[in-house]
Amino acid sequence: MGELSKLPNIGKVLEKQLNDVGINTVDELINLGSKEAWLKIKEIDDSACLNRLMALEGAVQNIRWHNLSEEDKENLKAFYNLNKE
Fold first, then answer.
1. What is the pLDDT of residues 1-29, one digit of tens each?
2. CA angle, corner 26, sides to 14 and 79, nearest 5?
3. Do 19 and 47 contact (CB within 8 A), yes or no?
4. Which terminal CB of the chain, N or C, has fewer other CB atoms within 10 Å?
């Protein structure tokens, strides 16, 4: 496992997906943002779910996704609902 798996919420499967879409460093993930990273993953994996989006945002914020603010969670849910199809 590489650099990304050192972040909260990023295991080897999600790290591989990030690598597969060209995101290989923490800085690349932070600069791109969770939403854009999730959209890239969604292009290669239709099973990309809300939990994966929240996991990415938690990683960007360097916290467990369960600890995201309610405002962040609601924002991510709205984004997911607009982009899940």
1. 689 999 999 999 999 999 999 999 999 99
2. 60
3. no
4. C
